[in-house]
Write a structure and sequence with these properties.
This protein is of the alpha+beta class. The chain has one domain: Lipoprotein localisation LolA/LolB/LppX (outer membrane lipoprotein receptor (LolB), chain A). The chain contains 5 helices and 10 strands; from the N terminus they run H-H-E-E-E-E-E-E-H-H-E-E-E-E-H. The protein has a 10-stranded antiparallel beta sheet. The chain is globular.
Length: 206
């Protein structure tokens, strides 16, 4: 084989391998952005995840989300891809749209799912942006929060913008269920325009 051809072949392979590797996160390169920093710099964020329940009635829902400043919009789908729930978390209220029954419930409704009784709208926005909500943080022990026999825990991973939340675990003793809310994709500075439309005004409130 021609020496020049061999040299360029080896160089090409080495270049391809180096480009295909995931970039190594160096501590000195990490910029630890706070919740307010993220909102100011990116304004919007969208992503995807999965929500699962372990207990007497296990279930799994995939979801997509968009959060803009302190407002959040989440679309949940079942394993067949059918739209089942839509959550609209505005600064002053949280509304759940049951898309199968075509009814909406606010966070004060007795029919509201337990998690919406634990979380406030501001908490949901912080979680979707990648931050542990301020009121759930404990400085002297593991992050978690006890409320009405419900335990909430958080898991984060290191990224280029610091520690980013990627899982929330709810232990709901009242219904003997553990719910995991996982975020596996997050895109800062991007939005799902369809989700930002929110819940239509004509949907009846139960």
């Amino acid at each position: 084989m021609n020496f020049k051809l061999l040299f360029f072949s080896v160089a090409y392979v080495l270049f391809f391998i180096s480009c295909s590797r995931a970039p190594e996160i160096v501590a000195d390169d990490i910029v630890d952005l706070s919740y307010n920093d993220l909102k100011q710099q990116y304004i919007t964020c969208n992503g995807k995840g999965v929500m699962t329940a372990q207990g007497k009635l296990p279930w799994k829902l995939n979801y997509s989300f968009t959060t803009q400043n302190d407002s959040s919009f989440l679309q949940f789908r079942d394993i067949f891809g059918r739209r089942v729930f839509f959550v609209e978390a505005l600064p002053n209220e949280i509304t759940l749209w049951d898309m199968q029954k075509n009814l909406q419930y606010d966070s004060d409704s007795g029919n509201s799912i337990p998690i919406l009784k634990i979380l406030r709208s501001y908490d949901i926005a912080q979680i979707l942006w990648g931050e542990i909500p301020n009121r759930f943080q404990k400085f002297d022990e593991e992050s978690g929060f006890e409320r009405d026999s419900n335990l909430v825990n958080f898991e984060s991973s290191t990224t280029q913008i610091g520690m980013v939340l990627d899982k929330v675990i709810f232990t709901l003793d009242s219904i003997d269920t553990i719910v995991e809310f996982k975020i596996f994709e997050r895109n800062y500075g991007k939005a799902n325009i369809a989700l930002l439309k929110g819940i239509p005004d004509q949907i009846p409130l139960n």
